[in-house]
Structures
1.
Amino acid sequence: SAVISQKPSRDICQRGTSLTIQCQVDSQVTMMFWYRQQPGQSLTLIATANQGSEATYESGFVIDKFPISRPNLTFSTLTVSNMSPEDSSIYLCSVDAASGSSYNEQFFGPGTRLTVL
Amino acid sequence: GNSVTQMEGPVTLSEEAFLTINCTYTATGYPSLFWYVQYPGEGLQLLLKATKADDKGSNKGFEATYRKETTSFHLEKGSVQVSDSAVYFCALLLTGGGNKLTFGTGTQLKVEL
């Protein structure tokens, strides 16, 4: 298994500002993902964070709004830029801990609860 | 495309009642199937999984069987407890597609004494 921590756990931000969320894993992993969970909704994949190259974004998400860094195999950041109230969500980091019997198993961080006023 | 359909909630049960949460899927290929649970105020935790047809995943008294013929992965528990109150998400993952999970909309379960 993989243990994932996220910072901050929650924040309240003003419209027009930006917030950077950190995700730290206790072991090296190949794939890291960022999801958004809007209030009362399911999870939507924002992007796959690739180590050493640009992130791969899903339809409807762009780098200018959600820049992502992945400097090594245990760490990634997601920035929510120029925030509006519609960005109020829980943002979750996940990792693919494919190894032996845990093939294709993903583990999730505790999430960052963001409220934009 | 790939999709997951779950029964809508909220589902309210009395303690010790039998639980079924329906999940069906559409996928191009042969996905792995998962149930995740989200307790109030927490992130997602993997509850159980099945990687091929007829596999049964089980954990904490919960079970789900991968039924290829009906493209289903229904979650069951024989006797629920108040501590099972949470949101349950069904998800699929296709290898070779970037290992991206596709989630259902989630089903909220509330168990009362």
Note: The mean pLDDT of chain B is 92.
2.
Amino acid sequence: EAQVTQNPRYLITVTGKKLTVTCSQNMNHEYMSWYRQDPGLGLRQIYYSMNVEVTDKGDVPEGYKVSRKEKRNFPLILESPSPNQTSLYFCASSPRTGISGYTFGSGTRLTVV
Amino acid sequence: GQQVMQIPQYQHVQEGEDFTTYCNSSTTLSNIQWYKQRPGGHPVFLIQLVKSGEVKKQKRLTFQFGEAKKNSSLHITATQTTDVGTYFCAGLTAAGSARQLTFGSGTQLTVLP
């Protein structure tokens, strides 16, 4: 089944403890992106990647890192999480921007205490 | 940066009534996409509009892209309880080789039986 898989689905962590949210897609998509969703703010882009080893900042990149060493994987790294990073995170992929829509993962609900 | 505004933020309708959400971009878009997110779910791609003045229909849903490619609307005729969810528009700009999909804040639709 074509899908974007995120793990974990839920995570509660403490301030300052490094964490990684994994994202993997099995559709051979070039384009991948991370979004965070907060009430009233919609989906805000954190980072995106056009292809392997090509990443760029979105609208809210502060406090986050990404890497794209393989085409299928696009992990989101929080080196020192803070409470304001408590949010619902979505990974998404697309074969090429402008041709078709994004396929989203099921989301990761992160709470930083 | 690019901004995509979406109104209204919330809409309650009686089943059978029509519903419209509007999307407006601060910059000219290369295309616009629409997504639906059911409560507790992830965004699901509905459609993409590319051409100035384009109108597309999916059963009871009608999507329009403005002549200036800066605004769009989604109209649902005779809403049903299955239409419940949040509808997002997402604008795509092209700047050199970098492309970013910017989401509106969404319209949360409640359909009362």
Note: The interface with chain A takes residues 1, 6, 9, 30-31, 33, 35, 41-48, 50, 88, 90, 92, 94, 97-106 of chain B (CB under 8 Å).
